[in-house]
Amino acid sequence: MSDVNPSTPDPAGAFRDLFRDTYDDLLLFVERRTHPAVAEDVVADVFLVAWRRFADVPVPRDEARAWLFTVAYHTMRNTRRSDHRQQSLALRILREPDTVARAESDQVAARLDLVQAWKHLSPDDQQVLTLTVFEDLTGPQAAKVLGVTRATFSVRLMRARRRLRRHLGRPAQIPSTTSAAARIAETGVSA
């Protein structure tokens, strides 16, 4: 392994060398700690962080490798926390007091519709809605949490609300083998 200086005149080449020299070790490190189906996604996230913070990557290759392992560890921990929060939120929604639910059948139906609609949302849509509704963050605060601009967050929030409303208006359906063309026509999204 050769050492890489992040201040080299060719940072892209130095990054390629770092990637080539550490990818396999990093992938094995992640696969030992998480499900193999998500390991490559975690490694991709780690190298994205490394690219964005390339000046912070230590110069000796062994130290750079340890730095990447640290980023991977924190990435996996954050992912697990996020998954746990989403599961806890879903359970909290389902565990609302039964006495009120029994007394008001309309409320039960609405709650079940919300749970079903929530399941149809992407994790990104769930996250945007959770930050504003459950965490009670303002738009600028939520944008900062996600590391995006206020305008980008506003667009994401608007789209997430639109998709949630669309799913709330849809009756519960049994999954079918709808053609891609029919799904595109129904949602207005291109493939």
From TrEMBL:
Keywords: DNA-binding, Sigma factor, Transcription, Transcription regulation. The keyword DNA-binding applies. It comes from the Bacteria. Gene3D superfamilies: 1.10.1740.10, Winged helix-like DNA-binding domain superfamily/Winged helix DNA-binding domain. Residues 113-164 form the RNA polymerase sigma factor 70 region 4 type domain. The keyword Transcription applies. InterPro entries: RNA_pol_sigma-70-like (IPR039425), RNA_pol_sigma-70_dom (IPR014284), RNA_pol_sigma70_r2 (IPR007627), RNA_pol_sigma70_r4_t2 (IPR013249), RNA_pol_sigma_r2 (IPR013325), RNA_pol_sigma_r3/r4-like (IPR013324), WH-like_DNA-bd_sf (IPR036388). Residues 25-85 form the RNA polymerase sigma-70 region domain. Belongs to the sigma-70 factor family. ECF subfamily. This is RNA polymerase sigma-70 factor (ECF subfamily).
